Structures are given as structure tokens and as C-alpha cells.
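User: Structure with flavin mononucleotide, C-alpha cells only please.
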Amino acid sequence: MGSDGRLAPADTLIKPYQSSRHSRTNRELGGDEARRVPSPALVRRVPVASPGVELAEAVRRRRMVRGFSGAAPAPEVLESLLDLARRAPSAGNSQGWDAVVLKGAEQTNPFWEATTTAQWRAHSARWPGLRRAPVVVAFFSHPGAYTARYREPDKASSGLGAGHDAWPVPYWDTDAAMAVMILLLGAVDAGLGACFLGNFRGEEQLRTAIGVPADRRYLGAVLLGEGGGADPPSISSSRPRRSSSEVFHRGGW
Ligand SMILES: Cc1cc2nc3c(=O)[nH]c(=O)nc-3n(C[C@H](O)[C@H](O)[C@H](O)COP(=O)(O)O)c2cc1C
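Assistant:
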């Protein structure tokens, strides 16, 4: 649907569930499910970077990859993943996050120098595999974009324009994290390895090294590239996944 409420031209539309990655047609889906499938005329064309996998499969298959071969993703694949991340939902559609894309050792070295210590690099079994990540996408949230957005007339009654302390939840970080998740799943879809590294040290050094404005907060970074080489398992990822009945409190806690 165009911004004026009319349907987009036919050449910008796809028929859902009829490509190789969406093999089910409306007719194959029975009952309620068939009714939930949007009319082909209402679905916009989505750029596809790769043969792709189904979403549920991508979610199940995703694991943090901490060993990279060093081979860089094709530029068009990287751009397509970044474009997907840009489509993340955000509170009030504030879109208050930015990401710095670092490619190749010359650009990624300052990232590692800021966020890790020489001692860790000398002793970590994971360092050799991590350092070969050909792309590092460092995410920054912008709290000021949210307070400004929530001072606009349609949001002003929320009181959230008053300042960051008025926010029960820092949605600037949440929204950046949603974009991170798209990138992680997109990497699976594109056949790439990816790992999110949290912000545990070096924010100021990183900010200075890559020229980030002072009002942005460093969330963490996604490493992207072809998986390969040693990838020693992390202690964290060996922890068992909590069961559905532990996580979901149906009908009340
Ligand atoms: C907010 C956040 C911060 C994380 N920081 C790191 C990190 O600094 N280093 C690391 O190796 N993994 C990091 N991880 C990855 C987690 O260890 C990993 O997601 C968890 O062990 C589950 O494993 P899986 O993602 O492979 O399923 C982080 C994950 C999240 C969500």
C-alpha cells in the first residue's frame, strides 16, 4: 500500500508463499491459516540476499559464531543485511539508533583495542577466531531522539519527553537490540556467522576511535563473516535452555 493509501504498482509486489523459500500457497493452507495469508497484491517485494531459510529454521539454527575464516561477505549481501536491520520496530517510530560498520583489519583493530585488553588477547582461546571477523557492526542508541520524539504533539501526554529518567524502560536500547536481532537472523539466512558482543568495557575509547558523538550510548557489536577455524564453545552457551513451562506463565505468573 502506498503512502497515499493506494496499492503499490504490480512490479513492486510479490506473491507470498510461491517462491522456493515460501513454498506453501494460499490454497495449500487450510482454514484460519489460509485467511491469515495476505493477498499477494498487498505484499511488497522484499530483497532476498540468498537462497534463504525459513524464519523458524533460522531462529532454531542461530548460534553465536566466535570463529571466523576471515572471508568477507559479498558487499551486496552485507548491504542487504544492513537494510533489513534498518527495518526494526522502534518506540514511536523514533528509530533512535545508529551503527558504525567497520570492514577489514585496519578498521576493526581499533574496535578490538578499545573493547578488549592486551592480557585477554594474549590468553583467550577465542581471540584468534574472533579477530578474523571481517566485519564489525557497532550499535549505538540515541536516548535524545526518544525524548525529542515523545515531546511531539501525538506523544506529549505521555510525559516521556521530560527526560530519560521518565522512561520506565530505556527503549532506545531495546530498539537497537531489535535491529541487532534482525542482523543475527539475517546472517543465518545469508549463510554467514555472526556474534553479538556486549558492552563490557572500553566505551569511551571506542567512541573516540571511531568518532561517535557524545550523546550516543554504545550497546554492543555484531561480528559478521564466514564462519571457520577454531570456535571453542563458551561456558555460557552450554547452559541448558529454560523450558517453555519455566519461561511462560500462562494465565498469570
Ligand atoms: C546482551 C548480550 C551480550 C552478550 N555478550 C557477549 C560477549 O561479550 N561475548 C560473547 O562471547 N558472547 C556474548 N553474548 C552471547 C551469549 O553468550 C549467547 O547468546 C548465549 O550464551 C546463548 O548462546 P547462543 O546465542 O549461541 O544460543 C551476548 C549475548 C547477549 C544477548
